[in-house]
Amino acid sequence: MTLSTILLTATAASGPELQIESLISDLAFLLILAAVTTIFFKWIKQPVVLGYIVAGFLASPNFTYLPSITTEENIEFWAQMGIVVLLFSLGLEFSFKKLLNAGGSAVVTALIIVIGMMCCGFAIGRFLGFTNINSLFLGGMLSMSSTTIIIKAFNDLHLTHKKFASLVFAVLIVEDLFAVVMMVILSSIAVNNSVAGGEMLLNVSKLVFFLIIWFAVGVFILPSFLNRTRRFLNSETLLILSMGLCLGMAVFSVYCGFSLALGAFVMGSILAGTSFAERIEHVTAPVKDLFGAIFFISVGMMVNPEIIVQYTGPILILSAVVIVGMIVFGTAGMLATGQSLKVAVESGFSLTQIGEFAFIIATLGMQLGVLDSSIYPIVVAVSVLTTFTTPYFIRMADPVYEFIASHLPRRLHFLLDRYTGSACSESETGRLWKTVLSRYLWRIMLYSAVLIAVIIISQRWLFPLMTHLMPHWGRFVCCLITFAVMSPFLLALSYPASKRTERQRLIEANAHFDLPLILMTFFRLMIALGLVVIMLKCFYSWSVAATMGMAIFLMLIFVFSKRVRKRMRSIEEKFLNNLNERELRRSGRNNNVIGDLHLAFMTVSYACPAVGRRLADSGIRSRYGVSIASIQRGAKLLPVPDGETRIFPGDVLGVIGTDDEIQRLIPVIEAPVDDTEQTLARDTIKLVSIQLSGNSPLLGKKVGNSGLSTKYQSLLVSMMRDEKYFTPDASTQFMTHDILWLVGNPEQLSSLK
What we know:
Structural class: alpha+beta
CATH topology of the largest domain: Na+/H+ antiporter like fold
Distance between the termini: 68 Å
Number of strands: 9
Strand order of the largest sheet: 1-2-5-3-4
Low-confidence stretches: 1-18, 674-682
Shape: globular
Mean pLDDT: 76
Helix content: 55-70%
CATH class of the largest domain: Mainly Alpha
CATH architecture of the largest domain: Up-down Bundle
Oligomer: single chain
């Protein structure tokens, strides 16, 4: 098929509303306009997201001084693609592993912020005269801070190394998950046009169920597949594969009754835990930047100046609610989880904006036809306003803390310090209980979801097939097959989640009082038995199901336990290894060479002090006690490199050492790069020309002893004397009116004139 045939076919299929020519012309116009605006916003040191929004406004019919797009349907198509790719990239940065490591402080703080801002947004929406459904969506939009804006502000202010910055990032990770749940809840409310508790609970339960199933299947299959095909996955193939998985999961999500965006987010979070995560982020970055830009441009096209002027008061009120609410709830959440007053205030003042998810929720409301068209530009205006004020509020955190600390009553100060100390201190028994309970809960959720999925598949697809093939025995055969598939997971659910040594330590710590462990065991067995009965009820009556279920369950426990238990342990181990693959590959904890030595793989960053040095001079062996077993440089593998081999950024080092040695080496090899400092260096080092006057400190000196390289950190490239260019040597003497061409800092070199 020729290209012209393909284009004609696509044009005919798309209909008159989506013509190829108009699609390309609109896209070209928007991208050129976006490029110009983003260059300007980069110049004034503002986030490029704001540039995209401005570009969208300039291309919209609301701005009459420039041509506008020909068809709005074209932009809606690209914007939907933008949402899918944007949520996929957010999932790559999210990962369920990061969520598990976020800690209770981040979860509680995020929960307080979301609930508090939802209530405030709803109340303010009703106060401003919005409907209930519009007020709910408004509350959802106001409850999510912007990850992009906060990262930009922290980098600009050099705050990424601070303790509160890591806590803020953890809160943002949890908020991403809450945003996904919120999208499902708001969609349910919008479709039913009411806040039905039962319907909402059903949808949330359905979401949790499918998240667990997708997550379990994805974690179990994808890392193994990627590792088996590693040698075939170059950048091109990895891009095609990752985008195919993203779009495939998005389509499957729609089939299951959810949105495209949810499926893309889930696939991104699954891939985030693999050892390919960094490569996938790298190869998909241009796609994300392109479609993300178009999405934010579509956001800007919804901006109507007339509505903004008309609703100036509500915009200012909502901006104040966002700023004050985020400060109050963020600070309160951090204090409630035992953080110090200083950390709490700094965290609260960092969250004073709304961003990406606000636009996604607004777009969702517009698509469902329940959101008033005037709310979209109001939210955009609030986002722009709070984005501009974010750096100033972050800077205000320390002065505000000093003011509060100096005026806080001594008694209250003492109570806060005491509470912080008690919350941060945790006994060994408490940590052990936390570990056991977390393992207990995730096993129950995971295996229960898998068992329910098996029952649903059997009832919907296997049972009709068996009864069609075997009218008399189909019911029994289907029940037998279903039980055979369920049995290993039932056994895994029935067995204790804690290890024998852990149970013994907990019993001893509680004065031989093991009632909690007994209750946990009983609850776990009842869940397993209940699932067996439910499975049988799908094929027989309740009385038959209850009787047979009890007998079958007891037989399963006492007869088949040993063999199946061993098999399930290996399955669990594989699942956990896949879940932690990214971290295990870095640390080598799952790759023992001999004794306590591990083989770990870590990528050399640009900021690594060993970059450019020979292995013999790098100090890696002498300082950290490790050995370099291999160097992966692109597609080339250097096995057992010698001391003359140099280290370059992007190299993947295969390092052999103990766990402690590797953990000390990782932050050195993978040292973070400060993008702000790189940009600053590029901006401050320039080629400049200087004409020497009679007051120049260089007059009478020779190039060799002038101190240009040592004192002024500059390089003399060329000179002009008597309108002739020449390359000076060390003996050349500077004279009045000489014109020097130097590479260095212009401000520093201006003193040489």
